[in-house]
# Entry
Amino acid sequence: MPNFVLQTVRSQVQSVLQEIDRLEGSEFPYQHAKDGLDELRDVFRDHETTLSLVTDQSKPDTIEAAYKTAFSSVKGSLDILGFILRSTNVRNAFEVYGPLLRLSRQILGPTTKLIISSEWNFSPFTFIGYEHLPDFVLIGFPATESSNPFLVPLAGHELGHSVWNAFACDTKYRKPIEEKIIEEIKSRWLEYDSVFPGRKPTELNTDFFVKQTWIPAWNWAMRQSEEVFCDFLGLRLFAESYLHASAYLMAPWREGRRSFQYPNGTERSQILVSAAQAYGMNVPPDYAGMFSDVAEPQDDQRQAKFLLSIADEARRSVTSDLMSQVDQIVSSSGVMYRTSQDVERCKDNFKMMVPSQNVACLATIINAAWEALLSPPGFFKNPQHDERRDANLTEIVLKSIEVHEIEQKLASHP
# Structure
């Protein structure tokens, strides 16, 4: 009798290949989305070839290894294929693609490829560690905000996840965070013993089963550190506009339970304020006051409550170093930085509804856009333009980004 599972996975691989062929008929606004499809097609053709060489007479271990490997790719393919399909949707602000690609390549290297997409998630996100597209940065914006140029700075945070991996930050911080967690547990031994009784301090980093009691705290601290690193990168790349964009998305959160993978809202905003001051940026008045905490673990969640407090302390112990590392990475990349003079000049152009020209970097345009958006009534020279300030600014900002990209291309290929 033919191996049913083997036949099933063969059929699933063929279905993925057929779907890729259908998707390739889409109109791609930039080449990298099509490149992603081509690379995925190669992956599944390899699976198809491997599965065709496996027969019912092959060794059981060989059969299982072949279909398990292929099925793993099938299972993980739909999210990526859907992401690539939505990257073709006209709701995306295609004007920002070129500047974001240039920014990504300055930090990660010239072979970096970028796909931006609109997603049905409220928070922007990125795919991390997808092995079949190793040189790709994939950034998804909420579908309702994907054409909003004011939120472009949040791409800096999502880019940060790729930078964290590229610069091996996970390897750098895993040991210091582990040492801090053990140090904290020992200093709060009575609390630890009340939730994990019967252990000894000497067993914390030597006994496998004792390690399992604090490993969740280590995982949370590592993930928090990565998220804080990404906040610092978005801030360092986009300056004050990152503060405004973050507040736009995160400040309304008032309900729900805290994610263990992020600092709570108030502390996260305070971390951003400290970093902005360290980077020499202007912080909006009472910025941290716009944010609120959501519910921490309750008293009946004693283990989670204790471990999360340990994770928070471990993350705090590396925050200053994370801030410095981001500054070093950006400074050495050659990324242009916004200046107050350029922002003012750009803003003056916006007042007359004229696209700004000869702008040094994307951050200049976005910072000018936020200053214009937050200015008192009467920003535009023409009072009628103020009646639709948001829409008019969105239009002129996107045009300015488009002009900036054309200028950059002409400078590269005169």
Q: What stands out?
A: The mean pLDDT is 93. The CA atoms of residues 186 and 202 lie 9 Å apart. Residues 302-333 form the longest helix (32 residues).
